[in-house]
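Let's study my pick:
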Amino acid sequence: MPGPASPNPPRPTGLSRRRAVARAAATCAAARVLAPGLFVGCSLGIPPRARTVPVGLLHSQTGTMAISATSLRDMQLHAIERINADGGLLGCRLEARAPDPRSRAELFASRARRLLEDGAAALFGCWTSTSRKATLPVCEEFQKLLFYAVQYEGNESSACCVYGGSTPSQQLLPAIDWLTSAEGLARKKIFLLGSDYVYPRTANYIARKYLAAREQRPAGELYLPLGHRDFSMAVQQILFSGADCVLSTVNGGSNLGLFDALADAKVDAAKLPVVSTSLGEDELRGLLPGQVQGHFAVASYFQSLATEANREWIAGFRDEFGHDRVVSDPLEAGWNLVHLWKTAVERAGSFDTAALRQVFRDGLAWDGPGGPLRLDPATQHCAKAFRVGRIRADRQFDIVHSSEAQLAPDPYPQIAFPGWKCDWTDGGITRGAEVSIDGDV
């Protein structure tokens, strides 16, 4: 059932990634012997020798999610380095600590606890909803904020989380509108294919409800384990269903198997396009151009966005990590969230969570590489644009559709969760009727 987990800038010129990692390794042991209270706020009488604030980065560097999460770690490390190069935050140097949760939910929880016990001012991380849900109770126990950069299924609100990715009302539902419209692909038989965990199952529950309101049903629905690579039988089931489109919530390394199987079955993207909610430029680097060209993804941001701010941001990242690197929607959101946190800390004059949440209530915005970012005070989610990208031969995207304006976040779309809503400026979560996600299948 739904409910809370419990409650462009100039190009960087300073500290490099390699120097930062080396310095962090050298200072980590010494930093941990300091009392956690010393890290609460450098503006509050901290002696000069202790002017270091640890920040936790929780991103899988091994396991099935490493294909996506490693680059998000790199981008947020880059953002922290840039802040340090510009003088730090409240007179403090930020120290990034990035243990590897290895794509395992239980390790996210234990790594989060160790980071917060060691005085981390905030956590940035998680990719899957399973890892986020494992981490949030720890953040709530310590009353520290988790900044989450990835699009997700909604059906959750936590006072200790800032959600930087798209909700279904900003990605999934507009995707169905575009898929079924004459201006879009004009498809009528949508097959729902996902990895078997929280995000795909909840997202597709919402999709079913949305289609039912239009007197439509999915052509089929199938889930395979996260990390699964053999999609040959899945592709045969899709073809047998008569589907004219696949709405994919397949995540991580499983995308390699999906597009391998589609290519083996000689599926024509013009006749049976895959529209992915969890596939970006970084994942495409591991796929052959002929396997993916002509298929689609839906996101708020694509690297091919033609603005000077975006070009400068990409160039800065490549200067640090290599000119073969690409950026994607979660990386843009991850960069934005670090700077949104920095803006809030500066405005509050403190790293304290209660002080930051007051800044959230007063309104908070940041101009990111993909455009302005505004945090909704009621939900602690961000207003987001909706865009559709068609995959090119160079594994970049042609943006074929963009929303006219940013879309408001809604973690509880009423079509799926009637009566549920969230307003952290006025009482928090209002509960509606209980909902069984799987019972609707």
